[in-house]
Amino acid sequence: MTIIPSKARTYYRFSSLFPDTIHRNASITISSPSPIFYYLLSSHRRTSPISGATSSLLSPALLSSPISCSGDLFPETGPCLAETTYLRQSRPWSNQFGTTRASSSYQHWAHPPFSAIKTDDGKIFARGAQDDKCIAIQYLEALRNIIKRDPEFKPIRTLHICYVPDEEIGGFDGMQKFVESKEFKEMNVGFFLDEGQASTTNKYRVFYADRSPWNLVIKAVGKPGHGSKMFDDTAMENLMKSIEVVSKFRENQFDLVKTGVLANSEVVSANPVYLKAGTPSKNGNFVMNMQPSEAEVGYDVRLPPTVDPDLLKKRIAEEWAPKTRNMSYHIVEKGPLRDYMGRPLITATNDSNPWWNVFKDAVEACGGVLEKPEILSSTTDARYIRQLGIPTFGFSPMKNTQILLHDHNEYLEETVFLEGIKVYESIIKSLSSFEG
Fold first, then answer.
1. CATH superfamily placement of domain 2-210+344-432
2. Within its chain, how far is the Cα of 183 from the centroid?
3. N or C terminus of the chain with fewer C-beta within 10 Å?
4. Is 330 annotated as a binding residue?
5. pLDDT tens per residue, range 335-392
6. Is 406 annotated as a binding residue?
């Protein structure tokens, strides 16, 4: 959610960047304060830009107010930013996502991942229940409640809500492309609210930064030879030495987490994700009596904004993949590391940031309590906003909830979902009324 000055126009705007298709479970029977949430959970969305069907799915949530469509902002990429204006008094804009993660293995689910089944204890099982179809609908329900219960409310700032694709694969054709657009620049954004994560305690979590992802590939070369011969500097030997060095670094970082010195999101993680070596045989296996001339390993590396990326690159070049051992490496940096002024992508959570106290007071006004602000261990589209120097928090109002994003049996209790709507009502009214 972005809060910006409201001067020329005073209406709500609903924008969607959904290049996808919908499969809706026609047999579902819904009795809920928010039927649209169940419908969204039961949709199986794909990222082929052919229909814009999700926009049609979400529109019923807004039928209580006038709606008019202004067309796609990026028609050259398909129906990727269909913008609809609706309601009156302000413009909402907030970040949501148009891709559904892989549903793990269906056989590990107690209920089908797109069934949106609510059990007797109030748990709603579905892929996306926590990450992040819940807040996609909570924003809309909160706005509708504000209009219905307080029709005289007139925000002094405009408010925008946005639904964008491809956050799970980097957001390069979603949020990154949008923040570079003329339309975004004209919005004069002052504050942004993105996704957060569930809390297992009675307090809500809030995030002031993300870790930045690197895809690191380390490659070793060496002399090939018969499997019976022993000689120095083989590709496999060189790679194993590098793996040992990286593993020791990872162990040291993990020890800081285990001993409570740093949080998981405050260290550099380097997790191996694949190994590739060997000489393939005709039967699809490997030749067992031949030592390969090449071998490589891939790592998912995550950097907190407090780490100097140049120092880590120096470590990789000198220790993890030194040329003296016939090693090479390649890094794909999946997102920005610094803002336009060269500063770490961090949003202040003190009096230097006036939005912080407004946000914190709004959560407390509805009975909520915030945990100590933290760095998100993963990565969201918020990094593209922080790169512009715009204050940005990650927040999802889910407390007393087991963290199950991307996991089997992802669920959200209906009471938690409904309570989150009330939290957003307070946040939206406070932020859009801030005069600072």
1. Zn peptidases (3.40.630.10)
2. 23
3. C
4. no
5. 888 999 999 999 999 999 999 999 999 999 999 999 999 999 999 999 999 999 999 9
6. yes
